[in-house]
Design a protein that fits this description.
Elements (H helix, E strand, L loop, with lengths): L16 H10 L1 E4 L3 E7 L6 E5 L7 H19 L9 E7 L8 H17 L4
Parallel strand pairs: 3-4
Antiparallel strand pairs: 1-2, 2-4
């Protein structure tokens, strides 16, 4: 039995600098305790997501852990919140105070903001 990868498919990720800049310039912002979530409509039939974690957060292992956490929360909520049916680009900037959070607090915080965006309440 072959296990199916649960990773976010490449086409559903933001990778290029210009894609991030477009979301920053044209999108809306939602401030949460541990993140700033930028979101903007895209021309695609699905959502894409990108994560930024600056060196202010600490060493690479710390930044990578926070990015993994962010992708995991998004992956879990992608289906239930129907992000694959929404034409949105999301950029999640991790704030420095997230370094001190545990996964439960961090994921709860990010989940609340994603739910607001999915419900259209973050306008």
């Amino acid at each position: 039995m072959q296990s199916r990868s649960e990773a976010l498919p490449k086409e559903k990720r933001l990778a290029k600098r210009r894609e991030f800049l477009r979301v920053y310039e044209t999108g809306l912002k939602l401030f949460t305790r541990y993140c700033v979530v930028f979101f903007a409509p895209n021309e695609l039939p699905f959502s894409r997501m990108g994560v930024t974690a600056t060196k202010k957060l600490g060493k690479a292992n710390v930044r990578n852990r926070l990015k993994r956490w962010t992708r995991e929360v998004y992956r879990r909520l992608r289906g239930p919140l129907e992000f694959d049916q929404k034409a949105l680009d999301l950029v999640i900037n991790v704030k420095p105070n997230a370094v001190d959070a545990d996964f439960r607090d961090y994921s709860g915080d990010l989940e609340r903001s994603l739910r607001k965006i999915a419900a259209g309440e973050a306008r």
